[in-house]
């Protein structure tokens, strides 16, 4: 019975996700679902991405947290529209939550929506939100063994960001082992080593994202 219940939940979520995706496509908006564990640097990466792309694209952010509105306030302080979703205990966002959040945004005025999912390396990878791409962040202090422990999130991600690379000399992080395991799980996702708070590597990540946005725009226009 548990499996049947889970299947019904995912089926309902996927139906709404499909509607979200069609809505985003109709308005020409690229939607990024950014996943990571707590403390990996999701918000700092979002702010660095905003700084890199704000002159080229109109951006909004949907913040997912169990509680509080701290991250949304940080984004708004950068002059970017932000919608806070508090899940009240749920460990992931769902497509119905995204639909309600998007209702408060002017999609015709946007090029990019970044969704900061709830900090978790398990559940967010299972839920389609209607996004254009899923990307995950791992931070160096978390350790190079996380792809082995949480393979699914690496498998579903279209890119992997390795954050806090400036701390690598301090931690016993084997970058070669990390890269090798990620490649065995996902042979096509690029890996972007960055330091979000210092700006190192952010330009390369931002250009990849800009390329995806432009490709989506070209597809929508064809």
Q: What CATH first level would be assigned?
A: Alpha Beta
Q: Biggest sheet, in brief?
A: 7 strands, parallel
Tally of helical segments: 8
CATH third-level topology = Rossmann fold
Global outline: globular
Task: Label the CATH architecture.
Answer: 3-Layer(aba) Sandwich
Q: Kindly report the average pLDDT value.
A: 93
Q: Note poorly predicted spans.
A: none
Please, how many domains? Answer: 1
Strands of the biggest beta sheet: in what spatial order? 3-2-4-1-5-6-7
Task: Write down the Rg.
Answer: 17 Å
* Secondary-structure element string: HEHEHEHEEHHEHEH
Please report the distance between the alpha carbons of the first and last residues: 45 Å
- The count of strands amounts to 7
- CATH homologous superfamily designation: P-loop containing nucleotide triphosphate hydrolases
Structure, described:
The chain is of the alpha/beta class and 222 residues long. It has a single domain, classed as Rossmann fold (3-Layer(aba) Sandwich). It is globular, with a radius of gyration of 17 Å. It contains 8 helices and 7 strands; from the N terminus they run H-E-H-E-H-E-H-E-E-H-H-E-H-E-H. A 7-stranded parallel sheet has the order 3-2-4-1-5-6-7, sandwiched between helices.
Task: Using brief descriptors, characterize the structure shown.
single chain, alpha/beta, seven-stranded parallel beta sheet, 43% helix, 7 strands, Rossmann fold, 222 residues
Question: Which SSEs are present, and which pair or pack?
Answer:
Layout: H1 2-27, E1 30-36, H2 42-53, E2 59-65, H3 70-77, E3 82-86, H4 95-102, E4 112-116, E5 133-139, H5 146-149, H6 151-156, E6 159-163, H7 175-185, E7 191-193, H8 202-221
Parallel strand pairs: 1-4, 1-5, 2-3, 2-4, 5-6, 6-7
Helix pairs in contact: 1-4, 2-8
């Amino acid at each position: 019975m548990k499996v049947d219940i889970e299947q019904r939940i995912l089926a309902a979520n996927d139906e709404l996700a499909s509607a979200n995706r069609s809505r985003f496509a109709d308005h020409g908006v690229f939607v990024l679902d950014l996943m990571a564990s707590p403390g990996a640097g999701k918000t700092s990466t979002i702010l660095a991405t905003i700084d890199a792309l704000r002159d080229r694209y109109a951006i909004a952010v949907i913040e997912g947290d169990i509680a509080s509105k701290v991250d949304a306030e940080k984004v708004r302080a950068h002059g970017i529209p932000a919608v806070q979703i508090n899940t009240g205990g749920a460990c992931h966002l769902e497509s119905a939550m995204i639909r309600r959040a998007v209702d408060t945004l002017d999609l015709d005025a946007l090029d990019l929506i970044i969704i900061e999912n709830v900090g978790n390396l398990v559940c967010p990878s299972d839920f389609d939100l209607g996004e254009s791409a899923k990307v995950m962040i791992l931070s160096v202090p978390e350790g190079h063994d996380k792809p082995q422990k949480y393979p699914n999130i690496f498998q579903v991600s279209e890119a992997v960001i390795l954050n806090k690379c400036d701390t690598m000399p301090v931690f016993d992080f084997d970058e070669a082992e990390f890269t090798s395991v990620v490649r065995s799980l996902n042979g096509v996702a690029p890996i972007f080593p960055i330091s979000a708070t210092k700006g190192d590597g952010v330009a390369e990540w931002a250009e990849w994202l800009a390329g995806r946005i432009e490709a989506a725009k070209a597809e929508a226009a064809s």
